[in-house]
Design goal:
The protein has 219 residues and is of the alpha+beta class. 36% of the residues lie in helices and 34% in strands.
C-alpha cells in the first residue's frame, strides 16, 4: 500500500510538472514541445487518478496477508427458529440483529491481484458483505421468513465494482469473487470467524457451538 501511495504521489508531481512545462512552452511559442508536454501530463494525470481511486477503494477493504481472525458471532434464542445475534468484528462497533432460521450465513467479497498491482505491494483484500439466516430444509427455505442484513455500504469508489464495470482501469486484478460460510444457530453458541487468503471460515468457540455442529451433522 505504501508503494502505491508513493507511486501515486510521484505521478501527481510529474503531472503538475508537465502542466507547467506545457504553459512554459506555449509562452515561448513552441507548439510541438507544448503538445508533447501536454501528452505527458495527460498520461501521468490519468495514471495518477487511477492510482488515487485504487488507493481510496483499497483502504476500505481489509488486507489478507495470511489467515487472520475477523471477529466472533454469538446467538441467543428469542423464539421458535429466531435468534438475537451479536456480530463482533475487530475494529468495528458490535452489531446486534435478529435472524430467522436454523443456520446462519456470512458472505464476503475478495479481490486478488497480479502484476503490475503486486509490484505496488497490494495484498488480497476482503470486505464482509451480508449476514443472513437460512434453513437446512429447502422446503422451509422457500416458505418461511427470510432475514438478511447488509454489513457494508455501497460506495462510488469500490474496487470490486470498478473491476466489474471498468476492467481496463484495473489491469492488475486477478480475480474478484464471493465467498461464504454457514453453520447452525443455537442458543448460547459462539463461533470464531476468520479469513484465509481465499476463503471465509468459521469455527466453534464454545461447547454450545460444538454441540450444534454435532447435531447438525447427524441430520
Amino acid at each position: 500500500m505504501n508503494t502505491l501511495l508513493i507511486a501515486t504521489l510521484t505521478l501527481a508531481f510529474l503531472a503538475v510538472y508537465f502542466v507547467f512545462s506545457t504553459l512554459r512552452q506555449l509562452r515561448r511559442g513552441r507548439i510541438v514541445r507544448a503538445g508533447g508536454a501536454a501528452a505527458g501530463g495527460l498520461t501521468t494525470g490519468s495514471l495518477c487518478a487511477i492510482g488515487a481511486i485504487l488507493a481510496v477503494s483499497y483502504a476500505s477493504y481489509g488486507r489478507l496477508t495470511s489467515e487472520q481472525t475477523v471477529g466472533t458471532i454469538e446467538f441467543i434464542a428469542v423464539g421458535d427458529e429466531r435468534y438475537e445475534v451479536r456480530l463482533m468484528i475487530e475494529g468495528e462497533r458490535d452489531r446486534i440483529v435478529t435472524l430467522s432460521g436454523d443456520e446462519w450465513q456470512l458472505d464476503a467479497r475478495v479481490v486478488s491481484w497480479t502484476p503490475p498491482a503486486t509490484i505496488l505491494g497490494l495484498d488480497p483484500i476482503y470486505r464482509l458483505e451480508r449476514l443472513s439466516g437460512r434453513y437446512t430444509d429447502v422446503e422451509r427455505e422457500l416458505s418461511r421468513e427470510r432475514t438478511v442484513h447488509a454489513l457494508s455500504e455501497t460506495t462510488a469508489l469500490d474496487v470490486w465494482q470498478l473491476a466489474n464495470d471498468y476492467p481496463l482501469l484495473l489491469p492488475g486484478v486477478d480475480a474478484y469473487y464471493g465467498t461464504a460460510t454457514y453453520l447452525p444457530m443455537a442458543n448460547g453458541a459462539r463461533y470464531e470467524i476468520s479469513m484465509s487468503r481465499d476463503a471465509l471460515l468459521a469455527r466453534p468457540a464454545n461447547d454450545a457451538a460444538r454441540d450444534a455442529i454435532g447435531a447438525w451433522g447427524e441430520r
